[in-house]
Amino acid sequence: MMSPNRDARVDFDRSQRIDMPEAIYCAGKTTDQCVAIVAEMLDKGDDAVVATRTTDDQRSALMAMQPRYQSEQAWTVTWRHRTPTNLKVVVVTAGTSDLPVAGECHQTLEALGHDVELIVDVGVAGLHRLMSVLDRLRGADVIVAVAGMEGALPTVLAGLIPQPIIAVPTSVGYGTAYGGQTALNSMLTSCAPGIAVVGIDNGYGAACVAHRILGPRQ
């Protein structure tokens, strides 16, 4: 079923095809367009609704809608979360500055019905901090590692634990970080085998990879 919306054609059948609903990417849209699309998805659909990359004005308007949002984090607002499963994802950040991207991932995963734990500020500049949370990481089904600067966190993790690791480079960093390009290249050329890498600042995409790894709802 396609949407008759003038500015967007919502793909209501996506959940049946790939077990993930279409998300609303709010960057570049007006507040009115975002509200209209979310309203249509809430009215005509029955799956989770995820709006990402919202501005302050968009977020305020979306959070004031009825039915009210279920949760919001960073620039992501979600409604009608799926029933939680016993599958766990740990989202881990190298630094506190990586939280907006990690929050987008965390919020999306919760909407898709996963148990999510967020561990913040355990980057390689202080390896003792990472080592102190390894037991928590080993309890996950999938790890999402979010890091800027030189992007070394996923490589270190991949040498310590066996879980699937999704690496998310962020645009955080000084000088030759080049807006996340250095972290991206570092993750793509990691010497640790089996790391999956998404694009710069793509917390939403990392959540979708994790969801696919965990498999469709039974």
Description:
35% of the residues lie in helices and 17% in strands. The protein is built from nine helices and nine strands. The chain has helices at 14-18, 31-44, 56-63, 99-111, 127-131, 134-138, 153-158, 181-188, 203-214, and strands spanning 24-25, 49-52, 71-73, 76-79, 88-93, 115-119, 142-147, 165-169, 195-197. The strands form two sheets. Strands 6-5-7-8-9 form a five-stranded parallel beta sheet. Strand 1, helix 2 (31-44) and strand 2 (49-52) form a beta-alpha-beta unit. The model has no long low-confidence stretch (mean pLDDT 92).
Strand proportion:
15-25%
Rg from alpha-carbon coordinates:
18 Å
- Secondary structure tally: strands: 9
Oligomer: single chain
User: Quick check: average pLDDT?
Assistant: 92
Please state how the strands of the largest beta sheet are arranged side by side. Answer: 6-5-7-8-9
Largest sheet: 5 strands, parallel
Along the chain, the helix and strand elements come as HEHEHEEEHEHHEHEHEH
How far the N terminus sits from the C terminus, by CA atoms, comes to 23 Å
Parts with pLDDT < 50 across at least 5 consecutive residues = none
Bin the helical content: 25-40%
User: Shape, please?
Assistant: globular
Give the structural class: alpha/beta
What's the SSE blueprint?
Elements: H1 14-18, E1 24-25, H2 31-44, E2 49-52, H3 56-63, E3 71-73, E4 76-79, E5 88-93, H4 99-111, E6 115-119, H5 127-131, H6 134-138, E7 142-147, H7 153-158, E8 165-169, H8 181-188, E9 195-197, H9 203-214
Parallel strand pairs: 1-2, 5-6, 5-7, 7-8, 8-9
Antiparallel strand pairs: 2-4, 3-4
Helix pairs in contact: 2-3, 4-9
